[in-house]
């Protein structure tokens, strides 16, 4: 066997031996060694739920984006205020069909999230709740029942000027966990309203630490035990029995579960 054939054989072993990849080198490092970018290039979706594309929420999200890009991560950033996503009509057609009957950016964004490795959700606090834009995405995004975030690492970001930010943060955190995702970090920050907000050193450090943690959690496929247990009970004793009782009315959901190897 020639030296070239030996190298090709070694690369084949590295790429096909799951044990080697997961224990000796993370999946992204393997491909970086071979190609510089590669087959498993990490993809993160960041979603700004604020109507202000340059407000404090977006400033935090862009700082996280900057830190991730510095780690050679592919980031797709979306301002919900710039997307055409109608409100949910409550027709439940998506449960039967596996997709929404409304032809807009709602399902497109949901599919982009589904094909990502991680998700960052950000919203300002309105009346101790998420923004209207974020609520529409939650209603239209196929999150909880379909388990859109199955095994995805996520960061939640909530900003506000008062106590209500903690209530809004709980809503995003539950969304992630009940949709099968893992909370890598949760950020809730008080900040005064500013036209052109500037991050403090403390805020920048929070963003950097959250970015590093997200990157490492995806690389090392971290699955926190308590969150795993929550997933198990929520799905097997709440969502799954409910859907199976509905039968054909939730045929689209069951198809998606099978695609995700959930059942």
Return the domain count.
2
The percent range for helix content is: 40-55%
The number of strands is 5
Write the element-wise H/E pattern from the N-terminal end onward: HHHEHEHHEHEHEHHH
Shape: globular
Count of individual helical segments: 11
**How large is the radius of gyration?**
20 Å
Separation of the first and last Cα atoms: 45 Å
Order of strands, main sheet, comes to 2-1-3-4-5
**Main beta sheet, described?**
5 strands, parallel
Average pLDDT works out at: 88
Uncertain stretches of 5 or more adjacent residues: 6-39
Give the strand content. 5-15%
Task: Determine the structural class based on helices, strands and strand pairing.
Answer: alpha/beta
In the CATH scheme, the class of the largest domain would be Alpha Beta
CATH topology title of the largest domain: Rossmann fold
The named CATH superfamily of the largest domain? Flavodoxin domain
What CATH architecture of the largest domain do you see?
3-Layer(aba) Sandwich
């Amino acid at each position: 066997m020639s030296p070239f054939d030996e190298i090709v054989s070694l690369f084949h072993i590295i790429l096909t031996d799951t044990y080697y990849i997961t224990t000796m080198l993370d999946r992204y490092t393997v491909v970086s060694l071979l190609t510089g970018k590669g087959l498993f290039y990490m993809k993160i979706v960041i979603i700004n739920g604020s109507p202000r594309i340059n407000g404090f929420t977006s400033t935090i999200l862009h700082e996280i984006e900057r830190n991730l890009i510095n780690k050679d991560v592919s980031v797709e950033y979306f301002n919900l205020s710039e997307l055409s996503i109608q409100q949910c009509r409550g027709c439940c057609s998506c449960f039967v069909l596996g997709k929404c009957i409304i032809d807009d950016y709602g399902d497109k964004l949901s599919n982009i999230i589904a094909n990502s490795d991680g998700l960052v959700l950000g919203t300002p606090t309105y009346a101790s709740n998420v923004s209207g834009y974020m609520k529409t995405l939650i209603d239209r995004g196929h999150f909880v029942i379909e388990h859109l975030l199955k095994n995805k690492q996520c960061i939640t970001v909530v900003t506000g000027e008062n106590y209500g930010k903690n209530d809004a943060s709980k809503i995003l955190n539950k969304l992630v966990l009940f949709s099968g995702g893992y909370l890598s970090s949760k950020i809730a920050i008080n900040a005064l309203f500013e036209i052109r907000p500037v991050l403090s050193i403390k805020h920048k450090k929070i963003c950097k630490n959250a970015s590093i943690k997200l990157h490492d959690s995806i690389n090392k496929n971290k699955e926190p035990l308590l969150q795993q247990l929550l997933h198990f009970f929520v799905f097997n004793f709440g969502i799954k029995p409910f859907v199976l009782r509905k039968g054909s009315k939730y045929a689209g959901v069951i198809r998606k579960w099978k695609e995700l190897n959930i059942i």
